[in-house]
Amino acid sequence: MVHFVGAGPGAADLITVRGQKLIREADVIIYAGSLVNPELLKEKKEACQVYNSAHMTLEEVIRVMEEAEKKAFATVRLHTGDPSIYGAIREQMDLLKKRGIPFDVCPGVSSFCGAAAALGAEYTLPGVSQTVIISRMEGRTPVPDREKIKSLAVHQSSMVLFLSTGLLEKLQRELMEGGYDSDTPAAIVYKATWPEEKVLFCTVASLFETAERYHITKTALILVGRFLDGEYERSKLYDPSFTTEYRRGTDADGMADSDMSNREAPNQGADKEKET
Ligand code: SAH
Predict the structure, then answer these.
(1) For residue range 96-116, what is the model confidence (pLDDT) as tens digits?
(2) pLDDT of res. 144
(3) Which of residues 138 and 234 earns the better pLDDT score?
(4) Do the Cβ atoms of 77 and 54 come closer than 8 Å?
(5) Spacing, Cα 157 to ligand 1 middle (Å)
(6) Full DSSP string of 16-42
(7) pLDDT at 198 over 70
(8) What is the structure's pLDDT at 240?
């Protein structure tokens, strides 16, 4: 069995409990050496075989998985962040399906979540933006025409750009041509959640200059949007006058909600889903 596991954004304790268990039990680990924290491998069994996929082709990766499967080994394919975002897992899963090798996926904390944590930011602020666009500049991997930064920028939503740190001059031009004002707040988060993390605040117009000044050329995310700064509206969900499935609205002062009657009894209310 092959387990695709999200390693999280960098800090070794940001892998999921399930992911860590799979690492502990693995007979073979193939990890994305360019971005996965090697500390995560300390948990492996002594006899576990380790491969760094940075030096391997897709075919080589699959061959290792096939060999492991013949021996009824457990294989962990360790990807940075969450494997569903620029993880190139689909092509691996399709080849495994063809070979009848079973697999599953254990999600991880994506670096765009790590970056928001580093900034103390919320992407989805009422009155500002209720949408996060995750995209990238075109590099060697093409981006469909209808998804070019200029078109996405029209929405002026919160935006996160992966894999684009080397293309900031073009990125900032396209963001502005597309619709963001030049003074729209932006941030560059380098190695979010790693010990060497750097957070740089700037504007859309100064992205390139800021990265140059701090010598940031890779392993960074570019965040753009008014969510980084300024005014927003408070949430409806926690508004005292707002009635939800779980709470009756009160007078505007919200006194009835602020007393201790809201404290949960043990085992109560584990499964709350809220939509506003
Ligand atoms: N699956 C990963 C993304 C892999 S693509 C995820 O969910 O995060 C690799 C790109 O992700 C890098 O070029 C960089 O843009 C971004 N990235 C990965 N880890 C990062 C980190 N800790 N801090 C900032 N950017 C990171």
Answers:
(1) 999 999 999 999 999 999 999
(2) 96
(3) 138
(4) no
(5) 20
(6) -HHHHHHHHH-SEEEE-TTTS-GGGGG
(7) yes
(8) 84
User: What is residue 196's predicted lDDT score, i.e. its pLDDT?
Assistant: 96
User: Dihedral, CA atoms, 76, 197, 137, 59, nearest 10 degrees?
Assistant: -20
The token duo for 237 is 């969900």
What tokens does 169 get? 């001059």
Tokens of 241: 């006058």
Which residue ranges have their beta carbon within 6 Å of ligand 1?
9-10, 35, 79-82, 85-87, 110-111, 114-115, 162-163, 189, 191-194, 219-221
Q: At what angle do helices 90-98 and 58-70 cross, to 10 degrees?
A: 40
Q: Distance between CA atoms of 152 and 178, rounded to whole angstroms? A: 7
Q: How far is CA 179 from CA 176, 184, 223, 258, in A?
A: 5, 10, 15, 42
| Concatenated DSSP letters of 208-265 | HHHHHHTT--SSEEEEESGGGSS--PPPSTT-TT--BTTB----TT-HHHHSGGGSPP
User: Distance from the CA of 226 to the center of ligand 1, in angstroms?
Assistant: 22
**65 DSSP β-pair partners:** none
Residue with tokens 């988060």: 189
The band of 274, judged by pLDDT with boundaries at 50, 70 and 90, is low
